[in-house]
Fold this sequence. Notes:
single chain, Beta-Lactamase, five-stranded antiparallel sheet, flat
Amino acid sequence: MLLRTRISLLVILAFAVICIGLTLASLKREDLLRMQYSGATSADRSNLWRKINGTLILRMEDKAWFVAEDRALRRAVFGGDQETIQRLGEEITTRLREEGIADRLDVLHADGTLAFSSQPAVFQSSVIAPRRAREAMEERVRVRGVGNDQERNVALALGIPLDAPPEAAGIAGMGVYATSIDEAILEMEQATQSSVLIVNRRGRMLAGSSDVMWESLDKHIDVNAVGTVQTVESDNRVYSAVVLPQEAELGTLVARLISVKDVTEVARRQEQVSRITVSAALGFLILVLIGLGYYMARSFAPLTDGVGVLNALSRGDLDARIEGAGGQDEVGRIAGAVNVFRANLVAFDRFRRSRERQRRRQERFIRREMTQLADTLDEGEREAVISELGQLENLVGETPDKKDRGISIADAADSASTALTRESDSLAMTALAFQKMSGRVQSQNQSLREALAAKNAFIALQRELDIAARVQLSLLPDTMPLTERAEMTGIMRPAKEVGGDFYDYFHLDQHRIGVVVADVSGKGVPAGLFMVMTRTLLRATAVHNVETPGNVLSSVNDFLEQNNAEQLFVTLFYGVLDERTGRFIYANGGHNPPILVDSNGANPLDMTGGVALGMFGGLDYADAHFVMEPGARLVLFSDGVTEAFNESEEEFGDDRLLDATRALPSEQSPEQDVTDIVSAVDEFAGEAPQFDDITCVVLIYKGESPQDSELPEASDGRS
């Protein structure tokens, strides 16, 4: 590289370093300003949102006496008078809506269960979680904040503890005012001149006024980057989005509050300014480079002629000489030295070529022998050895013979050392190649031994898993009519070799039949062993508590909690059918509610409020009951049915299960019912892999036999 080129590059490099430094400093300053702006904007939006929510909740607190001082409502809640609670709840709801205080009213019992809700839903639930409501009632304090129900309805809620009637003591329950979060969102939009949305962590929109906008921005906004201001582009528009955390303090929802504003015009003006600035900087840099090149060319012109002569001599062009160098001056002595170099170059090159031919013959012989040895290895190792051999040859190799061109002075200087070291390099290549070959042969033998041991261990483990799966399936009851009045069948299809689901049905005495469906947390062998222990405990306990399924669940829960080193738990539904009257008593331990199909259609059973077994000791489980009419069927299932996903990540869900049960023919056997339901799940899932164990049981009550026609009818009600 010419001296003038090096100087020019150094100047350009220095100039570039300065420009880059200034640019980085500017970008860093811009990042700091953006971070400060993001923090200030997020804090302002958070404070505004809290102020709006506080104003709406304060409006509800002003009228809290509607329920707090309603003695009739307190007495009805304390006494469990459901009819009176329903009537008074509707009256209070109407009054709240007319006065613009709240648009929803929930009434809770002292245990946190829902007594009344003005929100229509298939599975009604309060916007305040039962656990949070119980804590507030125990402390006799009001609770306020954001809550949500099981239908993902988000609302601002105020929980007001209801004292027991004067003749009693304690807490009767809780009244809950709720206002839809949409009112707060509207005020937020008016205050910030932007669109406000509430979405969950999966990006599903829960509330807001711009469904179309969110559909276009869903894939662009990172909902997990809370407390930040994001700039995104969609449909040729630029939006500024502020993501704030939004947790339902009184519920279980974790969501995000997103404020979106169209800043397209501002972004375009900023882009225009940036383009103008960059264009000016590039123009200035080009002018500087042109001026520098012109200056260096004129400054180094006298030296260029001398460098050209030296370059010609270095390429072997011995005819090139400096004019007037024929005497004994310095230029003449340089020319004589170049001629001597050329003569030596010719001699060295002839010697180098001879040694190169000899080295290549040796290398071909070594490669042929090593290739034959590599053929004894497997395909992968053989290819690796051949590849390494080629790489080693390249390391010690030399460029092809220089034919039909002059020999440079640099080549002449290097040829001597190259010729002397070439032979030692070949020996080094041979030693290294044989060393690698030996290591690969030893590694292959060791790998074969380890693979054989791993294969034997895998076969033994697979055999043991197959035995465990057969043992588990053998524990399930056979498909058969239980009695002349009841018929039942079921299926359990594990997601792995050994599953955590199970079902069972058995006779408790001459007229009562126990039925159970359960789902152990987790999958595989630990869940299967926990399932066997739960099934054994349930059967042993059930025969001593025929009339009280809740007591059975309490006993089993206490034992599992004390003997649960792996911290597993099980959701479980257990019921007892009196085949004489059709009376069905049940208790639920956190399991999916079964579906009753009778003349009233297909409807889920009421929940009894129990939690999963094995987590906490000393829990009580409530009983409930209903009367099955002749021809009615009860569909029991695990969450592997409703939580089956298809290839589009869509869930089968409760609604599709209800549709499948409604479509069951009335005269069909329980075996075909189970087949139809599982087939509906498989058809929906398609090619998607099974994620969880699938369990489905169908119980058909045929009614009383002729000899039982004299038995009294059982009354329906909740125990």
